[in-house]
Amino acid sequence: MNRPLVAPSLLAADFANLQRDLELINQSEADYLHFDVMDGEFVPNISFGFPILEAVQKHCQKPLDVHLMIVNPDRYLDAFAEGGASVIHVHYEACTHLHRTLSHIRELGCQAGVALNPHTPVDGLEDVLEQIDVVLVMSVNPGFGGQSFIPHTLRKVAKLKQLVLANRSSALIEVDGGVGLNNASALLDAGADVLVAGNSVFKAHDPLEAIRQLKHSRQP
Ligand code: DX5
Ligand code: ZN
């Protein structure tokens, strides 16, 4: 049985010690670094943008999983691809022409991700599944780290997994928000492939061990 992919979220790192935290991620079993971009409009918070991306690119050896919580993401896709993104997630709720946006992300040589807010049903993805490499299921309302996991997400992930299988899609299922060792194995049982973890990693007593445990949270 495959190990889950683990994507620690930079949002919970110590920005006064960014290089130290990035080196920690480099040494860890993490598969990606999750990079949360918030614009203060799509979500009620502002995080970071290109200057931080440049600094991260210099020191981070893991592929970047960029989560755009911004309106009109099309305006910035090229810049994030040039900035080193491996995966770019746009929000379903922020895209009028989602098919075009996802195709453009792939043309830029990145993997195309679609993020769903907790209230957004999975059914709307059926007609664009061929354009999707990964679906990012939000298990909190986006905008802040350290929130509580919304339990309904487990059913949503299971439903999405059925949709993916029924359409013979190879899209991965990623879950973001309030994820930790307490819910990781239930999420994996429901069909998740990638776990994003902010506070449960960076605020842990031993972040390297926290990543290792998430990586091994499914019994082979
Ligand atoms: C929330 C962000 C998440 C956040 C997760 O809007 O998209 O990626 O960093 O942080 P935790 O794991 O602490 O909930
Ligand atoms: Zn995120």
From TrEMBL:
What's the superkingdom here? Bacteria
Output the InterPro entries linked to this UniProt entry: Aldolase_TIM (IPR013785), Ribul_P_3_epim (IPR026019), Ribul_P_3_epim-like (IPR000056), RibuloseP-bd_barrel (IPR011060)
Q: Where does substrate bind?
A: 9, 67, 143-146, 176-178
Gene Ontology molecular function terms on file: D-ribulose-phosphate 3-epimerase activity; metal ion binding
Extract one GO cellular component term from the record.
cytoplasm
Its annotated pathway reads: Carbohydrate degradation
Q: What is its EC number?
A: 5.1.3.1
Q: Which UniProt keywords apply?
A: Carbohydrate metabolism, Cobalt, Isomerase, Manganese, Metal-binding, Zinc
Report the top EC class in one word.
isomerase
Cofactor: record remark = Binds 1 divalent metal cation per subunit.
Signal peptide: which range, if any?
none
Where do the annotations place a divalent metal cation binding? 34, 36, 67, 176
Instruction: State any GO BP term from the record.
Output: pentose-phosphate shunt
Q: Where is the active site?
A: 36, 176
**Cofactor(s) needed:** Co(2+); a divalent metal cation; Mn(2+); Fe(2+)
Q: Which reactions are catalysed by this chain?
A: D-ribulose 5-phosphate = D-xylulose 5-phosphate
User: According to its UniProt entry, what is the function of this protein?
Assistant: Catalyzes the reversible epimerization of D-ribulose 5-phosphate to D-xylulose 5-phosphate.
The record's annotation in PANTHER family points to: RIBULOSE-5-PHOSPHATE-3-EPIMERASE (PTHR11749)
| Family to which this protein belongs | Belongs to the ribulose-phosphate 3-epimerase family.
**Protein name as catalogued:** Ribulose-phosphate 3-epimerase
| Organism of derivation | Spirosoma validum
Q: What is the lineage of its organism?
A: Bacteria, Pseudomonadati, Bacteroidota, Cytophagia, Cytophagales
